[in-house]
Amino acid sequence: MTSSTPAFVAQSRLEPATPAPQDAQALHRSLFTLDSHIDIPWPDQDDAFTLTTGRHVDLPKMQRGGMSAGCFVAYIGQGPTTAEGHVQAQQQCLEMLDAINRMQGERNGVKARVCATVAEIEAAHAAGAIAVIPAVENGYGMGEDVAMLAQFRARGARYVTLTHNGHNALADAAIHRPSLGDSPHRHGGLSALGREAVGEMNRLGLLVDVSHAAKSSMLAAVEASATPVVATHSCVRALCDHPRNLDDEQLDALGASGGVIQITAMPAFLKPKPEEGKRTAGVTDFVDHIDYVVRRIGVEHVGISSDFDGGGALADWQDATQGVNLTAELLRRGYDKSEIAAFWGGNFLRLLGQAERVAQS
């Protein structure tokens, strides 16, 4: 999520304008495909099982596009770090997680299950159901109450993004908000509460998501977490100098700890803005970032996210029906089936499994 969710008013294409090659289509349908960051509309419209024109992602689009699973986030925009602000954020976060938990059953020929563990995700996939994986975007949603994290996990959440745009009580953000009274730095990374929250997330099996976090916060989280951290929707700073992206030092730390960066379909994070004209990006630009991470830290440390309905969309990956275009580009670059499977969900599932094992221990 970049800021407030923008309206998507154009008619969503239900098939790619230029169909992907047959080998790519066959491979894509054979894979377990997971998108690690999708926003939900709020207030809830209870239309996840309906083919919509106003959303990049709904369950019918996922089914048509051969998408196996998606992490749907309770996104809480940063507000004042006051007692009142925290209470409002906590209430909204729980209500949004409840809405995500209603995205299950069978309607309009689509089956979906809310999944809280890797075993449940794999069982849903085996049964032909889309796996809906809840998550929380912005630790502001817990306020200053670490006990809220257990309520998130009880509602199936699998990760918490430490910050959004603007510092919160847990950590410094990559983008500070002077309108909220932010200076460039508040805690110098993680606060004491942030470190406590990371420990509690490890205990509960919640992944620590460092997308949106300041570099100081991200590196501190890598050190503090017993489970490798994840950047669920970020890109590579060496290719696009945006404060939301991870630089080489951050990528190296992520790789050394066993973590994963999920490249995301946000044009502003993929390509520098041209001096003239409108910035555009496509799957070729997206896969350039995957290539960079593979060369820098290895195949096992990179995955795929869209940030659909939170600002993400590419010229040739506009909604959940068009993921096959990414698979086609990965094939064209010479990646084999096992590598593409790792990008499309295998690496992310590995981290979820590690988080579960740490929690059990």
From TrEMBL:
CDD domains assigned: rDP_like
Name this polypeptide is given: Dipeptidase
GO biological process, alphabetically ordered: proteolysis
Cross-referenced SUPFAM superfamilies: Metallo-dependent hydrolases
Record-linked InterPro entries: Metal_Hydrolase, Pept_M19
Signal peptide: none
Cross-referenced PROSITE patterns: RENAL_DIPEPTIDASE_2 (PS51365)
Coiled coil regions, renumbered to chain: none
GO terms, molecular function: metallodipeptidase activity
Region called Disordered, residue ranges: 1-23
Source organism (scientific name): Acetobacter garciniae
One Pfam family of this chain: Peptidase_M19
